[in-house]
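dude i think i finally got it to work??
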Amino acid sequence: MVLILCSSTIFLKNYTPKIENKILAILQFTLIYATSFYIANLVATAKATVILTNDGILHIWKRRFFLSWEKDIKIPWNNVDNYSFESDRTCDSIIVNLKNKTKYKIEKLNILPINDDFKKLQSEFLKLRERSNEKTTTANSNHNGFEQ
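look at this
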């Protein structure tokens, strides 16, 4: 993003005509920076849908990062070690620690008023995780240690 804004500054300084009228100069400056910010935003953001099922977490890419070829992610509940919710000034996060010592992080930016269902995702995450733990506990208590 910084690279795009710096290149637009160089473009503005070296390749645009010098305008004596202050209103047109401000308009030109605003137009170039708004376009640069829009392009940087398109390049630097991705969109994903996170679906919580009884089997686990399913991460489906709606729009990937620029030059990214990542595949969709499926995480079964039995691979989840623990999780935490974090919130700060700029973003809310659900951090899922997996048993193989990796982390899966779902973030939502708080800077712009985006209408989504992140709070619902948090509450559903807790419900499904507890339900998964109950199934695991029940399965472990029914197992008597003998193979059949």
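Strands lie at 47-52, 56-63, 73-76, 80-87, 91-98, 103-109.
im so relieved honestly
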